[in-house]
From TrEMBL:
Protein name (Swiss-Prot/TrEMBL): Amino acid transporter
Main location: membrane
Record keywords: Cell membrane, Membrane, Transmembrane, Transmembrane helix
The keyword Electron transport is annotated on this UniProt entry: no
Compartment annotation: Cell membrane
Length: 507
């Protein structure tokens, strides 16, 4: 009891000072950008979804990357403005609470946690499968027990690395990120050069500017593609969650978020053009309309483009990309639970900071364990259910991105007309981003109810809808349980619109 009282007193003091015990000033702009990009895991994201985007909109995949980029950039402006005012590792939770109150803030934080749990289960398996294929262990890659065992091992190891500290995490992510971007860009350039010099084969087609235009598509096709592209872009906000550990936290994280979005859209459009022009849209061979290629069209940039070495490199880079995302996804989510605990929205145990590594060790361990359990349950329940879970991820992402965007508008509402900059950066742009996210969420959720959407259904309702909406709704009883345990946060005593949230001093 004495230890619990001491912890409570320490946490109360930290709330008053704004110091959560994190290692301030540990990473700069480059390191912040690296964490944001590695959390996106571009190679894995493209491998997992580009084929489905092409299936939904045919040659218009580049257009969908640009269209989805626009609301992402608008939301990034909201993140930048909010992080300048309140550079708190709770991000959506903290900002949603200050703007709309504790209930909206809490459920926004839950949306972020849900998206992390879902993606961790999937990226761990992808990392395992592609590594086994790279090692030419195809029989093990097809074995449920082998890939699950290796996937669980990856989650455990990356959780341990995250506990060890932000600096070692940044260094590991730097290596992994540069490898995957280098190979993606190299393979894409080679593919486009071969198309331009008529060395790509008879299946290749000439790149068209019209691929950047969404004309001729209906709303359902656009919504299906955009919700997939939201997943492809998702993760750049990780650089905001480590803002309190960043040099110049009022400016650096916001700049890093915008830089991440710009790098991603350029890379994705380049890769999409390379794949579409090199592979063409035939129904056989490497053609993009061949259903055998839908699950992973990125391998088209491998052996067909540059031989066995590039094929092996792409297998490795997808595994590395998924592996880096496993670790970088844990980082921001654990820090989100830390912030929630400091303000008594979660049990105080989540606010425990490791005395040596200065990381939210307990929250990090819980996040890793939650992903591990989710992965095991869905893997042995059905591989189709695991696949549907990644399709549902866009709902959770659009949900908490939308809350963040609207929070920006409402939080700064009294100063929107003080200057043209405020009107656009804090008002119009975030508002448009929030509306776009709300449209993507609502339209996709309605379409996902159809039992033919995805690979599973229960009682005539699509499994993607059940997983996506069900995981978000699960937060309601958990939120009520937290309120019953300690209602101070929900009464607005620990965090409200007038609470001054500070970052720790750099030491």
């Amino acid at each position: 009891m004495g230890g619990d009282r001491g912890m409570a007193e320490k946490l109360h003091a930290e709330i008053q000072s704004g110091d959560k015990g994190l290692r301030a000033g540990s990473i700069g702009l480059l390191g912040n950008v690296i964490i944001g990009l590695s959390a996106v895991a571009p190679a894995y994201s493209l491998a997992a979804t580009l084929g489905y985007v092409v299936a939904a909109v045919h040659s218009k995949a580049p257009a969908m990357f640009v269209i989805a980029f626009i609301p992402m950039l608008l939301v990034a402006f909201a993140y930048r403005e909010l992080s300048r005012d309140t550079p708190d590792c709770g991000t959506t939770f903290t900002w949603g609470t200050k703007a709309f109150g504790p209930w909206i803030g809490w459920i926004g934080g839950w949306g972020l946690a849900v998206s992390a749990i879902i993606v961790l289960a999937n990226v761990a398996e992808i990392a395992a499968v592609y590594l086994l294929r790279f090692l030419h262990l195809d029989s093990l890659a097809d074995s449920l027990w082998a890939k699950v065992a290796l996937g669980c091992f990856f989650i455990i190891v990356m959780t341990w690395i995250s506990i060890r500290g932000i600096v070692i995490s940044e260094r590991i992510q730097s290596v992994l990120m540069f490898i995957q971007f280098g190979i993606l860009i190299l393979a894409s350039v080679i593919a486009l050069v071969k198309v331009a010099t008529d060395h790509a084969g008879p299946q290749a087609v000439t790149p068209q500017w019209s691929w950047l235009s969404p004309t001729g598509l209906d709303q359902s096709s656009i919504a299906a593609a955009v919700i997939l592209c939201i997943f492809i872009y998702w993760g750049w906000d990780a650089c905001l969650a480590v803002g309190e550990e960043t040099k110049d936290p009022e400016k650096t994280p916001g700049r890093a978020a915008v830089i991440c979005c710009l790098i991603l859209v350029a890379t994705y459009v380049l890769v999409a053009y390379a794949v579409e022009s090199f592979a063409g849209f035939g129904t056989t061979g490497i053609g993009l309309n061949n259903p055998d290629n839908t699950d992973d069209v990125l391998t088209i940039l491998g052996e067909p483009v540059a031989g066995a070495v590039m094929a092996s490199a792409l297998l490795l880079v997808v595994s590395i990309s998924a592996l880096s995302s496993t670790q970088s996804t844990i980082l921001p989510t654990a820090r989100g639970t830390l912030s929630m605990a400091v303000y008594k929205a979660l049990p105080q145990r989540f606010a425990y900071i490791h005395p040596r590594y200065m990381t939210p060790a307990f929250g990090t361990a819980v996040m890793g364990a939650s992903a591990l359990v989710f992965y095991l349950v869905l893997s042995f329940a059905s591989q189709n259910t695991l696949a549907d879970s990644i399709a549902s991820l866009g709902l959770a992402v659009a949900f908490y991105y939308g809350i963040t965007a609207f929070s920006c508008v409402w939080y700064f509402r009294r100063t929107l007309f003080d200057s043209a900059r405020n009107f656009f950066m804090r008002g119009l742009f975030p508002l448009l981003g929030g509306i776009a996210m709300a449209w993507a969420f609502i339209k996709s959720a309605i379409d996902m109810i159809n039992p033919d959407y995805g690979s599973t259904s229960v009682g005539g309702i699509g499994g993607v809808f059940i997983l996506g909406v069900g995981m978000l709704v699960l937060g309601v009883p958990l939120m009520l349980a937290c309120c019953a345990a300690d209602s101070d946060f929900f009464k607005g005593k620990t965090l409200n619109a007038n609470t001054e949230v500070k970052v720790p001093d750099v030491y």
